[in-house]
Specification:
Number of strands: 0
Number of helices: 5
Structural class: mainly alpha
Distance between the termini: 14 Å
Number of domains: 1
Radius of gyration: 15 Å
Helix content: over 70%
Length: about 120
Amino acid sequence: MEIVQLDLQQLRIKHILYKSKVRSFLYGGTFDTAFFSAAGPVDTWFTTVGKARYGHEPELQQLERLHQKLNNIALDLHKLYSSGQIEQAHDGLKEVNYTSDLFIATLSELDKRLSKV
């Protein structure tokens, strides 16, 4: 497996973990403040591997925007859940899933394009 594929596979795995953590706190798990901060694993990947190796790729910029959008949604859902608006927070998973699908599709496009080079 090439370095590009390994790097992007790492991001894919970190993203899936991120989405699982959102689902987890919405169903009674603990909210991990550090995980949903700029020090979290997805953000760390972007600031280290992502920008260093793929910063010039337009898809990377789109992926960063999508992740930031997901993070904002997750923080909003946590506020809803914490204030007792559990049903509304659960309904917000639709937006998480939609944005996550866009993230994975964009990541797949980048992977496909860079693997051909």
